[in-house]
Write a structure and sequence with these properties.
The chain is built from six helices and seven strands; from the N terminus they run ββββαβαβαβααα. With 296 residues, the chain is of the alpha+beta class. This is Meiotic recombination protein DMC1. It comes from Cladophialophora yegresii CBS 114405. Belongs to the RRP7 family.
Length: 296
């Protein structure tokens, strides 16, 4: 009989017993590999996290909480991150969210990715060999769970894996359900499209404000570039706000423009006086010539 190693490459080999289902009518043993999380880029929550590899395809955050908290009698879990799903930004406990009055164009563009059409699958299935990071409430909880997993691997008895109610919708049943969901109701489809278009309108409005602000800013020489505006009109209060900012910025240029005007007028005046003196000199010379001709 081949003996399964307790550790593989620094990972603890934790045996799990997967119950039979309609998709796979045989009970089998599945090995979950785990170790303390040690990412290449340091993270604040890494010292209290475990890195899991080869998770079952139907794994959920609730099933991992049931494994570590109930089955292994380990510490409490704060959150779970799966490698093949987009992580959501979570708020650290004890911090208050600060609402910003206005989002930037980059933030609105990134927010468009959060809107999508209704899903055609109502269950998430992980790929073979997928990984996850389990973050515990503190480091003692992580160490307690790690010790419990090491004892279970040493004992060698598979732990019963509870995949939750979604395990019944695997195999052919999942695709039969998919056929029903691939044509969403008109109400759900309209709600998704309206949410996306609302976010897109906010993005266009933010772009219009940004373009108006750039058009209102003078260049290095103090001149404004006159361009044709976009279709979306800027609100009156925003236009007034831009005008006020422009007025404050142009205060320092007023004296410079006055100096230029005075210098230009002074040059014009000096040129007129010079030409007047030349004309006066020419008239005097003409009078002298006439007098000399009359005397001769």
């Amino acid at each position: 009989m081949v003996r399964t190693p307790r550790e593989v490459g620094g990972f603890i080999a934790l045996p799990l017993r997967l119950t039979k289902t309609d998709a796979f009518p045989h009970e089998t043993t599945h090995y979950l590999y785990l170790k303390p999380h040690d990412p290449k880029i340091p993270e604040e929550a890494a010292p209290r996290s475990l890195f899991l590899v080869n998770i079952p395809i139907s794994t959920t955050a609730q099933s991992l909480k049931d494994l570590f908290t109930s089955k292994l009698e380990g510490g409490r879990i704060e959150r779970v991150h799966f490698s093949d799903t987009t992580p959501h930004k979570s708020q650290e406990p004890g911090t208050k969210s600060r609402k910003r009055k206005r989002k930037t164009v980059e933030e609105l563009e990134a927010g468009l990715d959060t809107y999508s059409l209704p899903k055609v699958f109502d269950t998430e299935i992980h790929g073979s060999g997928a990984s996850a990071v389990v973050v515990f409430v503190d480091r003692p909880s992580m160490e307690l769970s790690l010790k419990a997993a090491r004892r279970a691997a040493k004992h060698g008895t598979p732990i019963s894996w509870d995949a939750g109610p979604d395990v019944t919708s695997l195999g052919l049943a999942r695709y039969e359900r998919h056929r029903q969901l691939q044509f969403p109701s008109r109400k759900d489809l309209l709600r998704s499209v309206n949410a996306y278009m609302t976010a897109y309108s906010a993005l266009e409005e933010s772009r219009s404000r940004e373009n108006a602000r750039r058009r209102a800013e003078p260049d290095e020489d103090g001149f404004l570039t006159v361009t044709r505006g976009s279709r979306g009109s800027v609100r009156m209060d925003e236009a007034k706000e831009v005008a006020e900012r422009q007025k404050e910025k142009s205060k320092g240029l007023e004296d410079f423009y006055r100096f230029q005007t005075r210098e230009r007028r002074k040059l014009v005046q000096e040129d007129m006086i010079k030409r007047f003196d030349e004309d006066k000199r020419k008239v005097e010379e003409m009078r002298k010539r006439r007098r000399s001709v009359g005397e001769s």
